[in-house]
Design brief:
The chain is α+β, with helices and mostly antiparallel strands and 143 residues long. The protein has two helices and seven strands. The chain has a single domain, classed as 3-Layer(aba) Sandwich (Rossmann fold). A five-stranded antiparallel β-sheet has the order 2-1-5-6-7. The longest helix is centred in the last third of the chain and has 15 residues. It is elongated.
């Protein structure tokens, strides 16, 4: 059996996710070191990567992807008269770019549009095809 395609996450983009209003982070194929002060967003970055990559689990029988929660919405302070008002910002968006062995770079995104909404998946056809292939291989004992 031919070797399964490897997925390399190349870049992650965040919009209104936790402490990030808007940011793009390039990731290296072998190792990316994340360094920052407490509260700088290291854990938020890693969680966003987990949410993006868990998109693959939607193709697995009985598995669930991680979702963006309303608590993940970036909070922005507004001054209304003499009162500070803090409001969650939407949409919350996580975009991911990945390289598959022999294919062109692919992109997909997860979005939460409102506090009462559900996390959506967009442009994930190719990453889901790879995930389906992974599941098939596992079911056939190709580990």
């Amino acid at each position: 059996m031919q070797e399964a395609e490897k997925v390399y996450l190349k870049k992650i983009s965040l919009e209104n996710f936790r402490c990030f209003e808007k940011v793009e982070v390039d990731l290296q194929k072998k190792l990316t070191l994340v360094v920052g002060a407490n509260g700088a967003g290291k854990t938020s970055l890693l969680e966003s990567i987990a949410i993006a990559m868990s998109t693959m689990f939607t193709a697995f029988d009985g598995a669930k992807a991680m979702n963006i929660t309303k608590e993940s919405a970036h909070l922005k302070a507004y001054k209304i008269g003499s009162t500070d008002n803090v409001q969650p910002q939407y949409p919350v968006r996580i975009g991911a770019w990945a390289q598959l062995d022999e294919r062109p770079e692919i992109y997909w995104e997860r979005t939460l549009n409102t506090a009462k909404g559900k996390t959506t998946i967009k442009d994930a056809k190719q990453i889901l095809e790879v995930a389906s292939d992974y599941q098939k291989r596992l079911q056939e004992g190709d580990t």
